[in-house]
Amino acid sequence: MMRAMSKKKSPKDPHAKREARKYDQPIVSREFLLECFEESSGPLLFEQLTYLLNYQEEDAQVALQRCLNAMVRDGQLFRNRKGEFAVVSQVDLIPGSVIAHAAGFGFLVPDAGGDDLFLAPKQMVTLLHGDRALVRESGLDRRGRREGKLVEILERGLKEVSGQYHCEGKLGFVTPQNRRLFQDILIPPAEEGKAKPGDFVVVSIEEYPTKRAHAIGRVKEILGNELKPSIHIELAIRNFGLPHTWNDEVNKETAGLDENIDDKQITGRFDVRDLPLVTIDGEDARDFDDAVYCVSRQKMVGGFLSPLLMFQRM
Predict the structure, then answer these.
(1) How far from 251 is each of 10, 216, 221, 256, CA to CA, in Å?
(2) Which site in 62, 67, 73, 163 is 20 to 30 Å from 236, CA atoms measured?
(3) Whole-angstrom Cα distance, residue 128 to residue 149?
(4) Looking at domain 16-88, which of 1.10.10.10, 3.40.50.300, 1.25.40.10, 3.90.1010.10 is its CATH number?
(5) CATH dotted code for 160-239
């Protein structure tokens, strides 16, 4: 049964003007909502909040629901099994980001800072590296580290995984290239596309791991079947989530550009495009902007290079 609560006149939201500028359907600010929770005697149901805020119209209720969901995702609120919302700090829960280890355990890096919380392998069964989660501190482990117990997964950090496709019988699976992802991704029949055993692929995660089942994915892209340098680059881009495609705005802006260079653009410049320049930057260089071009002594005039062959270091 819903807990009885008296409807009192709440103070005005000091951030109301800011919210009105940001949204077509403005509601109370997150700060004001947190104050409402702190003044309550405990967790609140959605219906209790709409009653307290006098939100009778459907648009206002939809906007409030979206705001609450976002606050849960950001680790400001917690929703229990009864569907009640509460401030995370009031229920002794710690939001943070998950760092997984290849050995099967992990750590939670608290949003508020401080020491990380150790997550035992049994706590990592449903978690992936990069997830955001709520944990409750459960004590100290044998090494004296703060230990956490998973309460809820707030947000998944990975949507795609890159790795090598394997097949045993009718069972297909991908072994992630990222060592922090220690769980294989199962690939159901007909979801492997044209991938063959040994291919390096990109997989979109369709279902995340549970206590009883592995994650399930679908092959989205085939990178190749040999671990060439180019494949290493593609795998690194996917593993670290690096942007590798231009957005629509950039494509639209560059659509009218001509790849050909006319004579007016070359005037006053020293054109070295036909010279076989070779980079001289070291393997560990952070940029590759130094190059050289060599000629035999026979092409030198009076001990010096012809002016046509002289140019500054690129």
Answers:
(1) 50, 33, 22, 9
(2) 73
(3) 15
(4) 1.10.10.10
(5) 2.40.50.700
CATH class of the domain comprising 92-155: mainly beta
Which pTM value belongs to this model? Answer: 0.63
Sequential DSSP letters for 216-261: EEEEEEEEESS--HHHHHHHHHHHTT---S--HHHHHHHTT--SS-
Pairing assessment for the beta strands 185-187 and 215-224 based on DSSP bridges: parallel
If DSSP codes are grouped into helix, strand and coil, which group holds residue 121? helix
Rounded to the nearest 10°, the torsion over CA 298, 302, 307, 310 is: 70
Residues 121, 119: Cα–Cα separation, whole Å: 7
| Domain assignments of the chain as residue spans, ordered by start | 16-88, 92-155, 160-239, 278-309
Dihedral over Cα of 100, 106, 107, 111: its sign: positive
Cα separation of 264 and 95, whole Å? 59
pLDDT tens string 25-34: 667 788 888 8
Q: Report CA torsion sign: 293, 297, 300, 302.
A: positive
Pairing assessment for the beta strands 291-292 and 278-279 based on DSSP bridges: antiparallel
Q: Which residue has the higher pLDDT, 248 or 14?
A: 248
Report how far residue 314's alpha carbon sits from residue 291's, in angstroms, rounded to the nearest whole number.
Answer: 6
